Amino acid sequence: QVQVEESGGGSVQPGGSLRLACKASGRNLDSLRYYAIGWFRQAPGKGREDISCISYSDDSTYYAESVKGRFTISGNAKDTVWLQMNDLTPEDTGNYSCAVGDGTYCSSSFYYGMDYWGKGTPVTVSG
Fold this sequence. Notes:
Blueprint: E1 3-7, E2 10-12, E3 18-25, E4 35-42, E5 48-55, E6 61-63, E7 71-75, E8 80-85, E9 94-102, E10 116-117, E11 121-125
Parallel strand pairs: 2-11
Antiparallel strand pairs: 1-3, 3-8, 4-5, 4-9, 5-6, 7-8, 9-10, 9-11
């Protein structure tokens, strides 16, 4: 089993920045030779949005149009991925969760390749 835990959420004013972290752990992590880690968010009363992904299967990344140019995903190629979020707006408010997908590539449908999920960290942008 692989455990996934997010951190770094909080409250920030519009135009501000946050850096989220997603850490994977567990005895089966080493068995995932090529995997992807994706970030998702869900705003109150709205559906899930698949916002970013990084894949160690082919070194690809993916960004939703709503965050492109403002968010940057990066990782240590081992167990941690960060999501740097700049120029935040109230529309970025939501619960941000990450997931690990074994052998997954970062296409626009990367959600369907995710196997292990964290519980999320809340982000509130208001001023």
